[in-house]
Every structure is written in C-alpha cells, then in structure tokens.
Write a structure and sequence with these properties.
Blueprint (H helix, E strand, L loop, with lengths): L10 E4 L3 H12 L6 E5 L9 E5 L12 E4 L8 H8 L4 E3 H11 L4 E5 L4 H14 L4 E5 L5 H11 L2 E5 L2 H4 L10 E4 L7 H4 L2 H13 L6 E5 L14 E5 L5 E4 L2 E4 L2 E5 L8 H14 L6 H10 L8 E6 L2 E5 L6 H11 L3 E6 L9 H8 L5 E4 L4 H10 L5 E4 L3 H11 L5 E4 L12 H17 L2
Parallel strand pairs: 1-2, 1-4, 2-3, 4-5, 6-8, 6-9, 7-8, 9-10, 10-11, 16-20, 17-18, 17-20, 18-19
Antiparallel strand pairs: 12-13, 13-14, 15-16
Amino acid sequence: MLISDILHARVGLLGFGREGRATLDLLRRRGHPGEVAVFSDTALALPPGAIPYIGGAGLAAFKEIDVLIRSPGFPPHHPACQFAQALQLPQTTATHLFLAELRHNGSPVIGITGSKGKSTTSLLTQRILSQAGQPAVLVGNIGLPALDYLDDILAQHAIAVLEMSSYQCADLPSGAAPSIACLLDLFPEHLDWHGGEAEYYAAKAMIAHAQTSGDLFLCNARSAHQFAAAPPPSRMELINHVDSLHFASGWFRRGEAALFTDRDMRLLGAHNRENAVAAFAAAERHGAKPEHWQIVLSECDGLPYRLQDEGLHAGVRFINDSLSTAPQAAAAALQALGENAKTLIAGGYDRGYQPDALVQAILQSNIKHLILLPETGRAIAQAARDAGCSVHIHEVEDLDAAVALAFALTPRGGACLFSPGAPSYHQYRSFEERGQHFRRLITAHAAHE
C-alpha cells in the first residue's frame, strides 16, 4: 500500500504517539483533504481535523473508515486490532508505508534489528556511509519517526538507515522489507507483546522473510539457526563469523585477513565490536571502505544513555546506561567496564525477563555492591543469592536512594554503573527521562559531598 492509495480514503489512526503524529503530518503534506479518525485507549490532545475516539466505545467508528494505520505499541491481541481484523478492515503501519514508498521509488533502505545493539549499529552504519560520501539518513525506532524524513530522503536520493523493533518487523508484507536487512544477536524480549519466545523470534525473522530475491540479508552467525528450517528468499550472508567480517584478538578481520586494530575505537565492550562489524557489512554494499570504518570508530562515542560517561564525582566515575532495558544489555555493560565497575545499580519495570544473564555477569565481575530498584530488583537479588554471589546486595525504593547509596559505598577511583536491565515504564515515560533523572541526581548529590 502506497501513500497515494490512501490520500482520498477515510483514514483511521490507531494510536497517536510519535509515529501517529508523523503519519498525520505526512498525509497533510501530501494533500489528504478530510478528517482523520484517531483511536486511543486514553484521551489525547489532537490537532484540528483529527477526531478522537476513546476506548471500546469508539470501535464502532471502524465501520466508517477505509483503512486503519496502526501504531507499533498495539499488539495483535489488542481488542482494537482484533475488531479491525474481524471487520476485514485493511490495515497498515507507518513502517509499511515508509518501506513501500521507498521501494516504489527504487530508494535503498538498510534495515537493522536485533535484541541488543540495533541503535548503536544503526548509528555507526549511518556515520560510515556519510564518511564514505554517501548521503544517509538515520530514522526509525531510534526515536526519529521515518515518515517525518521521507520527503527529505527522496529529495536527497539518500540511503535510509532504519532501526526496526520487533513490533515493526512482525507483520511486514512480502516484498516490502528493506533492500538490505541486518539481524543482530537475539534473546527473548517483549514477550508480553508477542505472546511468547517463539513468536518474538518469528517477528524478528520477518525482516528477512519479507525480502525479495534481489535483496541482501546479513545475519549474525549466532542468529542463523532461526533460518535453518525456512531460509529467506534473499541472499543470506553471515557476519561475525570466522570466515567473514568479524573481530578477534584485538583486530577487525575479513576471514583470516586483518584489517585494523581496535586500539583507537572509542566504544566499549565486545558487543560493540560485533555491532561495528554489522554496521560496516551493511555500509560496504554502498561503497564504504575499511578506512571509512576505522575513522568512524575512532570518533564515535555512541548514543546518549548507552554507557555514557557522566564524569568523576567525589572520586567516583558514574556511567549512565539507562538505554539498557533487558538483563542481557546490563550484562554486556558490566562486561564492557571490566574491573573498573565497583557498584551496579539495576532494576526496573518487570516484563517477566529472567535475570540469569545478568547474574552470571555479576559472578564474573569485580563489583562490590549491587543496588537494586523495584520492580525487578527483588528477583535479581534472589537469583544472585541463589547463585552464591558474594557481592553486597542492597534493595532500595527509588533511584534517589540508589544514587545516595552509590556515593556512600563506591570506593574512590571506582565506577558506578547504572544499567537497569529493565524497561522504565510506570516510573518514567522513557529511558531518556530515566537517564536524565540519574544525571540530575548525580549532580545534586555531588554538590553536597
């Protein structure tokens, strides 16, 4: 479905977050003349021409629209989605529209997904392409609604680098996937949305299964088993494998050939070496060379709230990893800091994730104090005790208490890592808001030290 197909249709938007607003703005820019129905679970402030329908009472209005454009936060089991399906109401998403429009115009898209590292990989891909002189625009799940940038991408003949969540991959129509798809490492996430581990993995795999024979699929070697029974229609190449692009023994390599060392790379951690490999594998298809890759790695500090150094306060270095929303991400952050980490602050919204990966990283770390927040803090504490962790465990009520305790307990010269390993819901609107709060608390407590 193209945007031109719905310009004169009666349109409904399910949800009105960043993507919903971007969709409405694009429809207006392209000349959609009529009112647009907005369906939501809660009351919203809407612009002129957007008509609100709240909760179940608004579902009857589905019979008055021609197409429903869903926001990614609405899972398939949501009553509105099921009602629309029962009515056989045509449905699409902002991601579908974006991809269909670019494919229709012959514009390249590099789509990147995975359970961990997709934001960093997307950022590196865009920067490597730019370093190589290729116009490239970073959009998607990284917080930049793709439809807001569609017209600029088409006008610049730019390469779109699209970070994609499992929600955005789940129901990609055949033939509407990115021309280059990249799947990173996988572990269970968002099980409440998908309904189970198998469904989550299947959603991620759709980024490849929806491709065509002329497309390219780059797959992390550890994720390749997902395609053993059903290979994708595109050409599939493994990355982070000893026979292809990978990192080993301090060097980025192509098979046995060494390309350059990681000596000047600013990003921390083994996981970011894998992210860097994936980024170059995608950018290389559009003319990037190893020298462009090396320059970017020597300059890129990464994303805000991903292992972000907040500086030295009262002799303690504070690291802000609020972007960590799963135990595996917190484990990778702990491993990246190595022996410098003396205190870990973790815990957040309970989405049912098992803390095993984080507990194993704690066992192998040098941390002395584990400060745990609700809701997942209790489960992490119990799992750490069951595993025989010798670390001192402190359960606190909120982040303010956690930061105060970190100042009191972290030895001078050591680092305190804030890596929640859980989403921020209930207490914060986003990981950005959580990270900003952590930064303010550090500054406030440091002023009183």
